[in-house]
Structure formats: structure tokens, C-alpha cells
């Protein structure tokens, strides 16, 4: 069993047996100058937050619920791709330690057999021209059995144990995720998104599919053509128009 192999990410860790949300704690700590690589991790959240103001079921002490503060020297316009970078890092870690191979649903949900196993929530603290901190919230369903999930999500959520039939050592998986997160975050800052985009594409299950994209003001349908170097999803609508989708909730129409 091997544990933390990183230089900076995870070298400063705050562990809570239970808390409301690691994301909220991490935001506060980031404003209070917590160093690059700080990790907030808990066994159980009483008010876990998902994307689009949704609750995130993290009541069981059988998952990985953590938030990572990174301070890359990039301009705020490049921050959004960190969400795709994180999805790749977590996918590789899961592949290394289990016999599961997750598929990435744009922008960053990890699915196994069509059900969600991991959610990522990234939040940005920035000035006009400089990123102060990116807070990457990671929720992985690891050792839950079906009963651990709220009934309302039992048909759309799964865990690594449910998919592989085996318990996974959570500490080892945390260390692996942080290892790949450091590797690909560094690569992104040095070389940009292109080398990572190829990896993201090789694991994705969105491109080529017919999808419905729910956005704040409208819902559109079409075929996902690809992602740009900025991580924007290009959708071909039925009238032939190509639309760039920056942020949306995506529904895959044909699995
Ligand atoms: C999503 O898919 O909607 C994102 C879910 C993100 C959940 C994680 S669990 C650790 C961190 N703390 C939170 O309150 N949320 C994130």
C-alpha cells in the first residue's frame, strides 16, 4: 500500500470526522491565505453541496468528501478548465486502484454503467487578472451499498464497491487522486490544456451523443461535436447551427 507521493498537494491537511461541507470550510480557509495544496477532508457531511445549488448526498462515512485549494499562477479565464483536469485525474486514480473504468460526462461527472460515481464542484476566488485560489470539491462514492443512498437518487447513483464488488481503501484512493491532480495541474499550468484534452476525450462519453443541455435561461438539444481548447462543449443544433456551451446541466439522450 502506498500513500501520499505529492510535493505540495495534500501536504497541509485538515481532517474532520464530520462537518457541514468541506467546500465551505475550504472557501473560508482560502480567503484566510491557506497555502497552495491545502486539503480539507471529512468522513461525513451534513450539508454537502453539488453543482447548481443541489444538495450532495454525503451522509455515509463510506465515500471521499474533500476540497483541495490550489493557487496556480494563471489568469482567471483559464480557471474553468481545472474542472476537466480534475475529472481526468480522478478517472486515472480510479482506474489504477479498481477494475472500474469511469466515463466522463461533460464537463466533469464520472459515470460507471451510466450512473454517477463522482461529482466535482470547482469554485474560483480571483481578482481582475489573477487567480487567488481554485477550490476543487471532490465527492467519490466509494464503499456505499445501495441502501446508503437517498431513495430519490438510487436509480442514478452508484459506488465503486457496487460496481466492482470490492471494498476500496479510501486513504489509498485519496493519495492517488492527489498524485494525479498535482501531476495534471502542473502540466496544465506549464503546457496548457491541449495535452490533457486528449486524455479527457479518450475517457468521455458525451462527444458524438445526442444531448439536452439545460442552461439558466434556455434548454437546447443537439449532437455534441467536441470540446474546444478552452473546454467549451460544441453542440450542433438540429437547424445546423453550432453553439458553444460554457456551463450547463447535460442529459445524454441515448446511452
Ligand atoms: C456535483 O456533481 O454536483 C458536485 C458534487 C461535489 C461534492 C463534493 S463532496 C466534497 C465537497 N464538499 C461539498 O459540499 N461538495 C463537494
From TrEMBL:
Source taxon at top rank: Bacteria
Ligand binding (biotin): 45, 49-51, 116
Domain BPL/LPL catalytic: 1-189
Reaction catalysis annotation: biotin + L-lysyl-[protein] + ATP = N(6)-biotinyl-L-lysyl-[protein] + AMP + diphosphate + H(+)
Keywords: ATP-binding, Biotin, DNA-binding, Ligase, Nucleotide-binding, Repressor, Transcription, Transcription regulation
GO annotation terms (biological process): protein lipoylation; regulation of DNA-templated transcription
EC number(s) per entry: 6.3.4.15
GO cellular component, one term: cytoplasm
Any one GO molecular-function label of the UniProt entry: transferase activity
Entry similarity comment: Belongs to the biotin--protein ligase family.
Role noted for this protein: Acts both as a biotin--[acetyl-CoA-carboxylase] ligase and a repressor.
Protein name: Bifunctional ligase/repressor BirA
Species, as recorded: Psychrobacillus soli
Amino acid at each position: 500500500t502506498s500513500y501520499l507521493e505529492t510535493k505540495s498537494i495534500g501536504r497541509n491537511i485538515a481532517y474532520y470526522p464530520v462537518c457541514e461541507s468541506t467546500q465551505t470550510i475550504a472557501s473560508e480557509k482560502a480567503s484566510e491565505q491557506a497555502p497552495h495544496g491545502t486539503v480539507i477532508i471529512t468522513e461525513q457531511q451534513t450539508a454537502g453541496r453539488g453543482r447548481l445549488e443541489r444538495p450532495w448526498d454525503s451522509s455515509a462515512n463510506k465515500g471521499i468528501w474533500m476540497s483541495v485549494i490550489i493557487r496556480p499562477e494563471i489568469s482567471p479565464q483559464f480557471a474553468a478548465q481545472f474542472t476537466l483536469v480534475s475529472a481526468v485525474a480522478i478517472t486515472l486514480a480510479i482506474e489504477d486502484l479498481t477494475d472500474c473504468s469511469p466515463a466522463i460526462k461533460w464537463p466533469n461527472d464520472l459515470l460507471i454503467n451510466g450512473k454517477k460515481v463522482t461529482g466535482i464542484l470547482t469554485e474560483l476566488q480571483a481578482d481582475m487578472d489573477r487567480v487567488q485560489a481554485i477550490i476543487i470539491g471532490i465527492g467519490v462514492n466509494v464503499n456505499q451499498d445501495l441502501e446508503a443512498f437517498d431513495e430519490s437518487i438510487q436509480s442514478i447513483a452508484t459506488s465503486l464497491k457496487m460496481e466492482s464488488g470490492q471494498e476500496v481503501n479510501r486513504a489509498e484512493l485519496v493519495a492517488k487522486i492527489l498524485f494525479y491532480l498535482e501531476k495534471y495541474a502542473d502540466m496544465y499550468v506549464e503546457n496548457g490544456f491541449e495535452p490533457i484534452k486528449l486524455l479527457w476525450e479518450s475517457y468521455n462519453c458525451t462527444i458524438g451523443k445526442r444531448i439536452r443541455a439545460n442552461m439558466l435561461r434556455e434548454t437546447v438539444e443537439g449532437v455534441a461535436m467536441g470540446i474546444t481548447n478552452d473546454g467549451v462543449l460544441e453542440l450542433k443544433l438540429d437547424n445546423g447551427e453550432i453553439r458553444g456551451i460554457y456551463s450547463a446541466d447535460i442529459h445524454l439522450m441515448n446511452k
